[in-house]
């Protein structure tokens, strides 16, 4: 399972990278705005800054919603850095753009996916990643994890190579559950990764080991 961090915060990206388990980064316009990154040039520079911190794929989202403009914007993003993956929304022109980018060898991440049908369409169009937003489904009392398992079943039935990127992860149990269901990638906040580390028995055990060592020295 690949671990991506879902943020545009460079300190958090560095911290996750230093932990040694980071495989990539996902961003979106809201995450950019949260860090105060505004204006086209600043946003493009920020993508490059992120690419220079991590080794893996960095999703950069197009703002355009019509095919021609999406293609222009996506090609500009892809030219920024070899690690850039163009993030395209699941809309009609988005599906066409996924196919176009796929034919040109530009990596894509289909975002804002909330149903198995949308995920099937993204795979047919050649998306490298599909991003089902499980937390946002949970927010409206719909089982987000069920969507992950439905997509897994469909993709396995036909050996689609599109990777399931479980997005809108909110906490550590989402990470564990997505791992059980066979999501290829999870993207979430640093806190969701940090939560994997913690167990009180580890802390108690280590304290005792160190105390016992001190007794004998
Ligand atoms: O990057 C897309 C997705 O992970 C958004 O998450 O928490 O805003 O629903 P959230």
Automatic annotation (TrEMBL):
Annotated catalysed reactions: D-sedoheptulose 7-phosphate + D-glyceraldehyde 3-phosphate = D-erythrose 4-phosphate + beta-D-fructose 6-phosphate
Active site: 87 (schiff-base intermediate with substrate)
Chief location category: cytoplasm
Highest taxon in the source lineage: Bacteria
GO function terms (MF aspect): aldehyde-lyase activity; transaldolase activity
Protein EC: 2.2.1.2
Enzyme kind, highest EC tier: transferase
UniProt KW keywords: Cytoplasm, Pentose shunt, Schiff base, Transferase
Cellular localisation: Cytoplasm
Keyword Ligase belongs to the record: no
Pfam families membership: TAL_FSA (PF00923)
Gene3D superfamilies given in the database record: Aldolase class I (3.20.20.70)
Keyword Hydrolase attributed: no
Pathway(s) served: Carbohydrate degradation; pentose phosphate pathway; D-glyceraldehyde 3-phosphate and beta-D-fructose 6-phosphate from D-ribose 5-phosphate and D-xylulose 5-phosphate (non-oxidative stage): step 2/3
One cellular component term from this protein's GO annotations in UniProt: cytoplasm
BP term (GO), one: carbohydrate metabolic process
Stored InterPro entries: Aldolase_TIM, TAL/FSA, Transaldolase_3B, Transaldolase_3B/F6P_aldolase, Transaldolase_AS, TSA/FSA_arc/bac
Family: Belongs to the transaldolase family. Type 3B subfamily.
Free-text function comment from the UniProt entry: Transaldolase is important for the balance of metabolites in the pentose-phosphate pathway.
Name of the protein in its database record: Probable transaldolase
UniProt source species: Poritiphilus flavus
């Amino acid at each position: 399972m690949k671990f991506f961090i879902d943020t545009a915060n460079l300190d958090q990206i560095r911290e996750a990278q230093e932990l040694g388990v980071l495989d990539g980064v996902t961003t979106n316009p809201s995450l950019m705005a949260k860090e105060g990154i505004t204006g086209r040039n600043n946003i493009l520079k920020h993508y490059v800054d992120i690419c220079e911190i991590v080794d893996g794929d960095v999703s950069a989202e197009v703002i355009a919603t019509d095919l021609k403009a999406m293609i222009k914007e996506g090609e500009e993003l892809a030219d920024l850095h070899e690690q850039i993956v163009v993030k395209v929304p699941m809309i009609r022109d988005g599906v066409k753009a996924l196919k176009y980018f796929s034919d040109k060898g530009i990596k894509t991440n289909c975002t804002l996916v909330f149903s198995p049908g949308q995920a099937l369409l993204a795979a047919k169009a050649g998306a490298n990643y599909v991003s089902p937003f499980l937390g946002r489904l949970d927010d409206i009392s719909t089982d987000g994890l069920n969507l992950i398992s439905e997509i897994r079943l469909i993709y396995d039935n036909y050996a689609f190579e599109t990777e399931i990127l479980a997005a809108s992860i909110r906490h550590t149990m989402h990470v564990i559950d997505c791992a059980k269901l066979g999501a290829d990638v999870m993207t979430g906040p640093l806190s969701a990764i940090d939560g994997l580390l913690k167990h009180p028995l580890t802390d108690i055990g280590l304290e005792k080991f160190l105390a016992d060592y001190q007794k004998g020295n």
